[in-house]
Amino acid sequence: MNTFTKISLLFAMIASISINAQKHHEEPKHTKTKEHGKHKLAFFTGFTHVSSAFYEHETHEESTGKWVPTIGLDYFYSLNKKWSIGTINDIEFDNYIIKLDNEEEEERVNVLISSVVAKYNINHQLGVFIGPGVEVEFSESTKNFFVVKAGVEYEIEISNGWEIAPSLMYDWKEEYKTFSYGFSIGKRF
């Protein structure tokens, strides 16, 4: 079973559990948006797995990939209680080499992935998102890649508009794919 199939099954299971839980749980009278505003700013920290990456000093044979520390800054605007639009901006702090489809090698150093996403809230805590973006590396000899980012996050309200949200994300990049997990600490205003 490939990674895409595993991620798809995970999304389906979470959605099914959430829909069943929603049938047995009454929605609170006030939503987070009404209480704390339509804007949300969040700081993300986690790890990204780059399955096609290998180190410079390693042999250029089959690789099991590399875990890369990742931080980010996200912004969302709530259109209504079900839909939001936003931007997800992550920086992967490491350098690695990937093999491109044409068998050339490309070094990636501290890349920035910036995406514009649409988010659908399945219930008041669980949301799924997807959207286009770009991966940029700030040096002269590198390529930028088109990205499609998809993910799921579970928002847990702490107090006064503050929340913590564990998340899983998958990036389909023009030349390779990555999987990320982590959590964000956000504030609604």
UniProtKB/TrEMBL annotation:
Residues 1-21 form the signal peptide. Keywords: Signal. InterPro entries: OMP/PagP_B-barrel. The keyword Signal applies. This is Outer membrane protein beta-barrel domain-containing protein.
